Amino acid sequence: MDPNYVAREIEKYEVLIEELRYQIQYFLQKIQELQCLAVLDEEGEVTSYADWAA
């Protein structure tokens, strides 16, 4: 197998992995933001979310 082909394929996957890492970080940040806005009842269950504009 051509070593240049293998190197190009590895580079493609490295780029894809980096993009996925960015997307995962973005979604984790959004989840944390929603958790901060969650309004809980006495039992710790989410009842609603605080106003984003507040």
What does this structure look like?
The chain is α+β, with helices and mostly antiparallel strands and 54 residues long. It has one helix spanning 3-37, and strands at residues 38-40, 46-49. It has one domain (3-49). β1 (38-40) and β2 (46-49) form a beta hairpin. It is rod-shaped.
Give the tags.
about 65% helix; two-stranded antiparallel ribbon; alpha+beta; about 55 residues; 2 strands
How big a fraction of the residues is strand? 5-15%
Number of domains: 1
How much helix, percentage-wise, in residues?
A: 55-70%
Oligomer: single chain
Question: Kindly, what is the distance between the CA atoms of the first and last residues, rounded to a whole number of angstroms?
Answer: 59 Å
Residue-averaged pLDDT, rounded? 86
Provide a count of the helices.
1
- Which outline best applies? rod-shaped
Short description:
With 54 residues, the protein is an alpha+beta fold. Helices cover 65% and strands 13% of the residues.
List the helices and strands and how they pair.
Blueprint: H1 3-37, E1 38-40, E2 46-49
Antiparallel strand pairs: 1-2
